[in-house]
Amino acid sequence: MHTPMIVGWGHTQFGKLDNVDIEQLIQQAASEAIESSGVDPLDIDGVFVGTFNGGFVQQDFGGAMVGVALPELRHVPAVRLENACATGSAAIWTALDAIMAGRMKRVLVVGYEKMNTLPTAEIGNILLKCSYVKEEADIQGGFAGVFGEIAKAYFERHGDQSDALAAIAAKNHHNGMDNPYAHLRRDFGFEFCRNPSDKNPVVAGPLKRSDCSLVSDGAAAMVISSERIDGARHTPVTWAARAHVNEWLPLSRRDPTRFEGAALAWNKGLEQSGLGLDDLGFVETHDCFTIAELLEYEAMGLAPYGQGAKVALDGISAADGKLPVNRSGGLKSKGHPIGATGVSMHVMAAMQLSGTAGDMQLPNVTSGSHGAVFNMGGASVANYLSILRAAD
């Protein structure tokens, strides 16, 4: 059995990058990943690309774009993967399967997205393609409207959770101040995130602008190898476990206030690794909206159903808490370029576990630590969990 490990990574700035096209994004992230890995580009066996697109840019055929950005890879087999907001993780999973099957030894994974090309309303309509269009296409506000409905249902069942959502938003923006790649490095504080205002209006249901992740451009990349590479800049990082669980796409067929697919992914990953939550040094989780992070606390087992607010309000998920969540700033501060997100989350985790996270570095994360990444597509429809550790 081949044991894949992340041996190099690269990451662009996330943000509204008007003067940067997709070839430049790919070139920057992929070149940095290859250079840091110590792998000769001619020794890369396959390229796995994650991009959602859906109409953000006219150029599709993402797999072929890596060869355009990096001519030395023009003859390397390349494929594009898409799985909504978990597109990046889908690319990673396919790359891992190729290595574990013995078909490839060294692969490049690139996730990218150029979203800020259209008016906000059109961006929202494109993202709604990731909902069950037959029943949910007319929800106002795009995916903010979808998660606004989820938040409304949760509030009706468990009471007003606005304090907890504001605490999550404030935490992630505070954490993002230390992330040089973050789209929005601004420490808004609890009061701003808690109270509606002209600068923080209500967007959908009980969700305010501060509860919503950002529309971002950016790319992230990593080189995965079946063996250590001489000359790699960083300690390689490997998987202790990984799980992928799907769930109903139509919200009408399930309880949208319970992320059952996420809970199953967490249960499978923890069982496979032989670990518990107490064994993890940190989690990078998919906070596309603050209500999503709250429901993910419950899915991972940090709190019983209906009590996720305590995790945020008691500081359990803070950088100095029992289990730091989204030390990178999460999607909320770092940004959410759809195809890049899953890859970016794994890069952030690899930086922590290799001790190269700079100002984001958690002091209690050492060479023997484990960390987790949870990335989802849709409203917890495609659920990917990685439990990672520094390679022996």
UniProtKB/TrEMBL annotation:
<dbReference type="InterPro" id="IPR020616">
    <property type="entry name" value="Thiolase_N"/>
</dbReference>
<dbReference type="InterPro" id="IPR016039">
    <property type="entry name" value="Thiolase-like"/>
</dbReference>
<feature type="domain" description="Thiolase C-terminal">
    <location>
        <begin position="252"/>
        <end position="388"/>
    </location>
</feature>
<dbReference type="Pfam" id="PF00108">
    <property type="entry name" value="Thiolase_N"/>
</dbReference>
<dbReference type="GO" id="GO:0003988">
    <property type="term" value="F:acetyl-CoA C-acyltransferase activity"/>
</dbReference>
<protein>
    <submittedName>
        <fullName>Thiolase domain-containing protein</fullName>
    </submittedName>
</protein>
<dbReference type="InterPro" id="IPR002155">
    <property type="entry name" value="Thiolase"/>
</dbReference>
<dbReference type="InterPro" id="IPR055140">
    <property type="entry name" value="Thiolase_C_2"/>
</dbReference>
<dbReference type="Pfam" id="PF22691">
    <property type="entry name" value="Thiolase_C_1"/>
</dbReference>
<feature type="domain" description="Thiolase N-terminal">
    <location>
        <begin position="5"/>
        <end position="183"/>
    </location>
</feature>
